[in-house]
Design a protein that fits this description.
With 397 residues, the chain is of the alpha+beta class. The chain has helices spanning 7-23, 26-34, 42-55, 73-85, 93-106, 109-121, 235-246, 252-267, 280-308, 317-345, 366-373, 383-394; strands at residues 126-129, 145-149, 152-160, 170-176, 187-193, 199-205, 211-224, 228-229, 270-271, 274-275. Strand 2 and strand 3 form a beta hairpin. The structure holds flavin-adenine dinucleotide.
């Protein structure tokens, strides 16, 4: 099937390309290409965020009246694809992709007026305080205690795996205000300032050495009651609404770029008078992944079509979450396999040899990407949990 754009959408694509040529510096492109993990460093992230904000293009997913672009879904698709192909920094989703849409749906007018402009400008950088030790997939079992004291809640306990808590100045989080008859009852949704006394952020390093996640400790932390979203004890509804946006998909363009990088890597590795790309077995693996990527693309189009009718992402976003995690990991496996060939054909490599990486450009990042992307089938809800959601809410099993 060939999908082509209308004349208006082609003109929009040209406008996007012109903007990217003019505004996306080589430094920012290089930072994105070198990013070994899931999230880009705060500094590069926020630099690109501010450029987009100045242009009015920072929140394509938001309604226009809240500062969104008013683009239709095809324009948003073009935007995601073009920025990915140009290696533009991928913006952190916690504020723009999660907290903002959640506040638009559930926040008070005062919360919207205060927080939304600060998310758009980049003045506020958010982290997500959902998971706790022992409460990840079984999120409703969370224990971080919030005791009401006058016009404040007083928080004691801990959150874990909190992405970029070490850079964020705000956190949206789930706390336990009551031991409910069901675990989902008695959870409350709060917004808090990360510089509130009593908060400690401890780093957790990935196996590759990358620092993205943290454990956050709360010791008598006071949070004003006006920072609550929704009713006391009713935060579960808000939490689930936000997760639909977290699992919204849209990553096929990034995977396409990543597969292209593996192709280029394989094409630069000499093998049997040709390159690794001429190897039947390796080429078959790349082609198989490309076919799967096409299938993902059409699933993404189907979800976009549902969204264009004004629906929220819905539980179907769990399908994209899984497909995206699987293919992202598959591509890192291919890169590692290609890198292995590169090492085989290089001379040297004796014990203690500390010469620079012998393979082609990009090969040196294959291993950290491989390790870091193991997390993509865990973060945001594990693949198994997404399958349970699909079985129950999509297939009705
Ligand atoms: C890189 C990274 C970033 C993260 N960032 C954040 C963040 O910013 N904020 C935040 O709040 N959390 C974050 N998380 C936490 C993430 O949401 C949890 O790790 C995830 O929900 C899984 O929970 P868990 O780690 O407690 O594993 P568990 O829930 O203990 O799961 C262990 C294993 O059991 C399986 N399992 C559990 N329950 C079921 C079931 N019912 N059916 C079938 N299998 C099941 C799981 O699939 C998994 O394989 C992040 C995690 C990672 C890895």
């Amino acid at each position: 099937m060939k999908i082509s754009f209308s004349k208006e959408h082609e003109a929009f694509r040209d406008e996007v390309r012109t903007f990217l040529d003019a505004s996306l510096t080589d430094e920012l492109r290089a930072a994105q290409r070198a990013c070994p993990g899931i999230f880009l460093d705060y500094e590069d992230n926020i630099r690109w965020h501010r450029i987009l904000h100045a242009k009015g293009w920072v929140a394509p997913g938001w309604p226009k009246e809240y500062g969104g672009t008013g683009w239709d879904l095809v324009q948003r698709y073009i935007w995601t694809t073009e920025t990915t192909l140009a290696s533009a920094p991928s913006l952190a989703p916690m504020g723009l992709g999660m907290c903002g849409p959640m506040l638009i749906g559930h926040g008070t007018q005062a919360q919207k007026d205060f927080y939304l402009p600060r998310i758009l400008s980049g003045e506020d950088y958010w982290c997500q305080g959902y998971s706790e030790p022992g409460s990840g997939s079984d999120l409703a079992s969370l224990k971080l205690a919030a005791r009401r004291d006058g016009e404040d809640y007083v928080l004691n306990g801990t959150k874990i795996w909190t992405t970029h808590a070490h850079c964020a100045n705000r956190m949206f989080c789930l706390v336990r205000t009551r031991a409910g008859d069901k675990p989902q009852h008695g959870i409350t949704f709060l917004l808090l300032d990360m510089d509130t006394p009593g908060i400690t952020v401890d780093p957790i390093l990935f196996a590759s050495g990358t620092h993205e996640v943290n454990q956050v400790f709360f010791d008598d932390v006071r949070v004003p009651v006006i920072n609550r979203v929704g009713e006391e004890d009713q935060g579960w509804t808000v939490a689930k609404y936000l997760l639909e946006f977290e699992r919204g998909g849209g990553g096929t363009a990034a995977h396409r770029s990543a597969l292209e990088r593996v192709r280029r890597l394989a094409g630069a590795i000499p093998l049997d008078g040709g390159t690794l790309l001429d190897d039947e077995d390796f080429k078959a693996k790349i082609d198989e992944t490309a076919v799967q990527l096409e299938a993902n693309q059409f699933t993404e189009f189907r979800i976009m079509a549902a969204l264009s009718k004004g629906q929220n992402p819905g539980p179907e976003s769990s399908i994209m979450k899984n497909l995206g995690a699987d293919i992202g990991q598959r591509i890192t496996e291919l890169a590692v396999e290609a890198t292995g060939f590169s090492v085989l054909v290089q001379p040297g490599g004796e014990a203690g040899d500390n010469r620079p990486w012998p393979g082609p450009d990009g090969a040196e990042r294959a291993f950290s990407r491989y390790f870091n992307l193991r997390a993509s089938s865990i973060a945001g809800g594990t693949n198994e949990v997404q399958k349970n959601i699909v079985a129950k809410l999509v297939l009705g099993l």
